[in-house]
Structure formats: C-alpha cells, structure tokens
Request: fold
Amino acid sequence: MALRLLTPRSLHPGAWWAWAIGCAVVASRTTNPAILGLLISVVFLTVILRRGSAPWAMAFRLYVYLACFIVTIRILLRIVFSAQGPTVLFHLPTLTLPGILDSVRLFGPVSAEALLGAGISALQLAAMVVAIGAANALANPKRLLAAVPGALYEWGTVVVIALSIFPQLAESFGRVRRARQLRAETGKGAHLIKNVAMPVLSDGLDRSLVLAAAMDSRGYGRSMAVSVFSRRLTSVLLVVSSLALCVGAYGLLDTGFTPLWMGVPMVVFGLVAGLVGLRLSGRRVVRSRYRPDTMLAAEWLVLGSGVAACVGILILGIFQPMVAFPPVSPLGWPDVSILAIGTIVVLLLPAFMSPPAETPSTRVVENPHKSVGFLGADTQNGGFGLHHGENWGENPSISVTQHHNAMVLRGFSPLGVNSGEICVRGNDDSL
Amino acid sequence: MIRFDSVSIRYGVDQEPVIRDINLELADGQLILVAGRTGSGKSTLLGAINGHVPHFTGGIVTGRVEVEGLDTAQHPPRDLAHVIGVVNQNPLAGFVTDIVEEELAYGMEQLGIDPQQMRTRVEETLDILGLADLRNRPLRTLSGGQQQRVAVGSVLATGVRVLVLDEPTSALDPVSSEEVLAALLRLVHDLGLTVIIAEHRLERVAGYADQMLLLDGRGGVTQGETRLIMEASSLVPPVVALGRIASFPEVPLSVRDARRMADPIRAALVTKDPGRFRRVPPAQGRSSVRLADPSLKPSGTQRLEAIESDGLTTKNVRIMYGHTCAVNNVSLSLPPGKITVIMGRNGSGKSSLLWALTGVQKMDSGRYSVDGIDLENKGPDKVRDLVRLVPQTACDLLYLSSVEEECQAADRESGCESGLCRQILDALAPQVDSRSHPRDLSQGQQLCLVLAIQLTARPHVILLDEPTRGLDYPAKASLAQILEEMAWEGRSVGVVTHDVEFAAEVADQIIVMAAGEVIQSGTAPEVLGTSALFAPQVAKVLYPERWLTAYQVGQALNLEDSHDDGVHDPRGYESEVSW
Reply:
C-alpha cells in the first residue's frame, strides 16, 4: 500500500493548493515565532522533497528571496522609525526632521521588544509568501487551469496562450536585439526601442495568428447551438454570483456594523448562483479531457492535512491563546503545546506520505523497457544535458550510477522501503 | 475525396485572382506534391482545402470546394477538424500545450472524444510515429524533426483521413527532413491516408509522390502523374535536370531511377575533368554588383571596383554556453575571392561560429583576424566595418516602414552618399518597389534587401546563415550568382547551409562541423563527391565520378546548345533573374 501511494506521479493541483492555503491560514492565526519557524521549515522540507524539475518548480527560490526581503525591510523600517521599548539593545543617534516634519524622530534607542514584534509580523507574512510559493512549485499551473470547470474553459485557454506566447516573445526579443548589433545603430533612446520593438511585436503578432489558425483547424471553439435565453440566463447568474460573493466576503471580514445577512447567507447565495451558472454554460462545451486529474487517497491526504491544520490552529487560538499569541513583553521563550506541535506535524505529513513528483529519471523506473531509448533521446539535445544532470543531483530519492555498459537506477523512498533496483541495459552510444 | 469545382480565389475585388477557375479531383490514399514558384498560390490552394481560406484569411472564393462531401464554404476549419489535419512550416508556433502526450490529445479533447478512446488513440499515435520514448518530454526540448512528427501526430490522432502540409521540412536539416518524410510515407503506404504536401525542394519528395499539382503562377493548376508533370515542368529537381541534359529515355524521379539509365553518360564523362567546367550558369543580362557610377563614393578611401583583402583566419576558437562547449578549438580560414560553405547538423556550432566572427557572440578563447587585423574581443562596433552577417531570420534587421527608408538608413549608417544601398539592391533584385513595406516582400526579396544593407558598408567578409530557406529554384540560382559575384570582387564569402544542392553549386571550399569541431574540410568535389549524407543528387547518380551539378555535366557533354530552342534551360528554368 505504501508503495502504491508513493509511486511517482503528479498530484491534483487542487490538493497542493489546499495544503498551501492551510499553511497560510496557520501563519496568519499565530504570532508564536516557534510555530512560525517550524511552519516555514515544514514548507521548505515539503518543497524540496516533492517538487519536480519543471521551470515553475524552480521558481520557488524567487518566493524565498521575496520572503527574506520582506523580513529585512520590516526590521529595518522598525529601526528607522523609533524602535523604543523596555529592553534597549543599543543606541543610534536620533535624527529630527527639519521644518513641519519636526515631530518625526528617526533612529534613537533600539529595543529587543520592538525588533521582536517587527520580526514576528514579518515572519507571518514571509510564511504566507513561502506557502504560496510552495503551491506554485508543487502544482503545475497549467494542470490547475485544466481543472477549472468546462464553462471557464475559454478563460483558461486565454491564459494558456498568454503563457506560451510569453517565452516566445522573450526569445524573439533576444534574437532581434542580437541581430540589431549586426547593423550600425542609427540612433539611441526611443529610436532604439523602435528598432527592437517593431520586429519583436510583428513577430509576436505573426506567431499569435499562426497559433490561432492552428487551434482553429484542430477544432478549438466547436460548440453546440444554445438558445439565446439560456445564454443570457448564464451571464446574469454569473454576474449576480460574483457580486454576492464580494458583498458576502465583506460581511464576513467586517465584524463591526454590517447586518447579519451580509455574511454567511450572502456567500452561500453567491456560491449557489455561481455553480448553477457554470453548470448551464458548461453544457455548451463539447469537450472531453485527456487523463483528467482525479482525487485519489494521496490527494485527500494532502488536502486533509491542510484542512486539519486550519482546524488545529483555530482551536489553539481559542483554548490556548497564550501559545497562539504569546506576548512580546516581557521577553521570554514562547510556550509551545502538544496541540501546536500536532498542527505543524499534520502539515508535514504530505512531505512523506504523498507520491513524489515525476522526474525524467523516475519515468525510467516506471517504464523500464523504454528507458534506453528515452535516455538516448536525451543525449540528442546536448544543450539540455546539464538540465537533466541537475535533476539527478537534486532529487534526494533517486541515485544513478553508471557502469561501463549499464545504468543502474536506485530509487528508495524516504520511509526506508526499498522500491527496487532496476538495471537498464544499453550500449555506450546511447548513454 | 477532395473536389475543386471551378474555384477562383482572389484577395480583393480589384485584384488578380491567385487561383483561377480550377477543377481538381484528388483521390484518396495518394501522396500529392504541390509545386510552384514563390507567390504562385501554393499556400492559398492548400488553405482552401480546409476552409482556412477564406474563413480565416479573408478573400473571395467562387466555385465549390468539397472535402469528404462537406462544402468548405459552409464549414469553417474547426468543423472540418475531424476530416483534415493541417501541419505548418514551423511546428513550434502551432503547439498549444507543452508536453508531447498532451499535444497529441489536444485535438481530440476539442472534438469531445471519449476519454477511454482518447487514451488508446494517443498510444497508437505514439507508436505509429515512433514517439513513445518522447511522450513526457517538453515540446521545446525536442529536435526539429521530432517536433514536426509530433505536429503530424497531433492531427493524426483525431482520426483524419487527409493531411495537408505546407513546406513541412523547410526548416529542418537533411536528416530531420528524411525522418519526417519517412513518417509521412508510412502514413500513405500503411494507413492509406491522403497526404498533400507543398515543397520547394522537390528533390526530397518527387521520388515518392503519386501525383503532382503544378501551379503556373498565373492562377492555373496542372494535375497529373508526377513523371508526366516533371517532363514539362520548369521547376525540376537536379536529377530530372540531369535526365534532360543526358536525354534519358524516361524522366528519372529518384537517384535510383537515374542511376539505372546513367551508364552511357558515366562512360562519356570518365575522360573529362569536372574541375574545368562551371557548376552554375554565369549571370546574364544583369548589372554587376560593382558600381556603375563612381561618384557615389563612401566616405572612406576604399576602391569600389574591387576589394583587396587577405581574408579571414581563425585560430583555436572556443565558445562555451555554461558548461556546454558550442565551438571547440576551431581553426579555419575564409580566403578572399572564395565561397566557403560550412555544413553540419543542427546544433553543431555553425551558427555560434558565425556570430562569433561578427563580434556579437563572445569567444571564450582563440584569435581571429581579417586582413591581418586582430578582431577578437573588439566588439561588434569595430568588427562591423570588415565583417557583415545576414542572419537566419533576415527580417530581424528590418524595422522601418518602407524599402526606401531602409535603404536611406543603411546609407547613413555606413557613411556613404545616398543611393548606394538602393543601387546594390537594384543589382541584386531589380523589381523591388521602393514604397513597399519590407515585411510584405517575398522571402527572396527580403534576403536581397538585407544583403544590400549589409553590403552598403563594403565589408571584406560577408557571412550568410541559411540563406536558401524558403527560396525556390530560380531564386536560389540568382543567389548563387550573387554570391559568386561578391567573391569575384575580392570578398571572403562564408555560407552556413543545410541545402546540399546549393552547396554543390556555389562552394569553393567546404567545412563540415560536428559537435563544435571541424571534422572535415576540403574542396567541394572532395567533400561532397564522397559523402553519403552531403552528396548532391548528381554526384550520387554519377558516383564514383565527382560531378556535382547538372549544368556542369551539360557543359562537359557540350549539350547546352541543343536546348537553344528556348524550351528548357539546362538547369530546367528560365535564366532570367527574378525573385
């Protein structure tokens, strides 16, 4: 069972998103630095163990940079704008702004409490950013779009085309800029922009037209005839639903003066109207889905861990407020309870209990008799050899050793269950 | 069954029809080759088959086009997706998803095919086209031939019975195009599909085609068996041209056909030395690239009539991309007055080397010099005076809104009197209208415009990256003459090309690269005459004698005069220059 659960495959993107939102909710519902620190470590560990080798997975470090940036800026700002408090760590010379701003004082004494407070709020934000980054690294964005309901399919396609046109634009930008150097520059500034922008844009336009024509001739946009009434009804339902959802969200978040009906009832109404609208418009689309993502045991486990963590942190906030929101002053080590640790451990489960992502090397294991051709084909693009080399180096669950005339792949699961050793025959030419 | 019933297509009420009143019946299970000069309406004809014309491009279609009983006037392309599959020149531009398997499934998803059946068909298609090992690969990481096979597979999977391909191999190297054509042949022979293919390089397809549609450029189409059409065609592959010159009893369509009939001429040629005969006809009735009016003088003191140069030499050039070595230890020379052709498969470092010689691509180590001046690490600004490159996508250099403006800009850039660029352009391609937009020009005209712009600076070395892409036979012949003239003026000319027939016509010296290294260099007969991969058709027919082009054989056999009745030029087309 454990083996089947851990067979490499990509999970339903919704499961990872639910887990990541769970992480973000935990981060927003506690100011305990110990819990936040544990949470961030758990997110890191999960990403490292379960991400694939796709470009979007590699973008995780961008989110990490952003998180580091947030923490640094938050603490620096606190030092600049008065960080007073009981426990002074060091003194900086005080600056008073001239003129009408003379009430603003910069720098001065820096206290531990102020720094801790700033650090904790920054850490909350950083944890949320890292959680969203993790979702992006773990779930294929295109699969997520593919999972949207049939009615929103056209919107999804627009995003897909935009996604595929962008790298092409970047590519033609590079090409044209390089080509421009072959011809003496006839001007600078605006002229230069025109030199590069003209060919790049017309290239982009040409490519979009080719893509549109290709999609058209492959049957994109075939639809059933629907009555005008049903089409109008759909649009009305969708508009009403989004309005209701906005009002409802406002009602839920603002606990002050809004009447009760603006909260939960409005959200429920919005959801129902939206679902009916989507259902109706989905009828227009004659489309089937190749290998749709399904919610299997692993998906439910990942999703469940996110939900369970949300519940855990809410209970923690109600019954152990001193653990969830420890006071900054007086200074002291934050308390940690079994419940708090349990909440984090639940979030850690997917890192070990969900199937790892597919990588080129795990696919070899999946399909051994094809593997030699696959590896051989890889060597055809010399330029990408590096890319695959990195995968093997980075994925901790796979090791590759090359003997003089054979390649041995050893995959072992982190639980210590040896999932087998496969020897792939091949001659030196193909490897 | 595809039926054209007195069809005319024009793109404007006041314009000449591109296709004029044609009647065609294309039977099932055939490989049909569509040939014609650039701009003769090949793409329009192919587009009309699946309703792309006029539903997508606009235009006025009269008459009736019927595919499997469906009238394309009433059915836009998307409604014909289950009947006709279309494959373009550049497969990457038409891909919607990123992964091979998903791309194969995309068309079926649109048609709403049952998921279980979809699964089966994807697996079958993967096997039919030999893509099973690539199923999970990102499309961008595939080679050109693999991408084109995926494109074929992605339309095949929807269950179409007709495939329409517009120059599917023009962007591929010889090995990749063989791969794609082999896949297509299998579809025709084993699965009984109808394949309609437009192609400039007839030598690649003519041997396999059952039928041919020849467009005459005035809107008419001739349909017939390939051999019959080839007999009278003005566009013929080298092997057919050889057959005409040597008066073979029947038209040879493949090297195998021709070899069976070539014994007499092989015997006649044994005593002759190929080196004594020209491989391309000399330019006729065209003003030289050299300037007629000496008052149009660039600000420098160079002589306009001839360029005195010692050529370009490189020593131990190495170019790295990260940890990958693109060019490794290359030492070569481009001698003045000679055309050097660099060949090799995609990714062998040819283009990197060219870009490095312009100073745009940085070399990691090595030296190179032009006329004894060291140019390594000088940057493109210094190098530009001596070395100029026409890149693969020539139109990247064009950004102004008319040919005239481009020419004026080129004059300013090179510090010449105005008019020089236009004068060179006139010598290269006389019919280009000054007011037309550069992007509306044909591929050949664009190439000439960029070449004129680059020549305006009077460089000592001119380099061209894949110049024959998208050119038909007459355009290639003009280009061959232009290159010859540029070399004759004293320049070093370097050409990177996959086109073996073109290399056979122009090359004085050939350098073959593989994996970033020079693996062979020598004169054209030495390299092309003996290679299995790079041998032109004529060399294969006359092996072991080292003859490279049909014109050369014609000269040797002294048969060129027998064709002065004006019906056929020895090379099979009118020798007047036209793009």
Summary: Chain A has four domains: 2-146+292-353, 150-217, 228-282, 360-425.
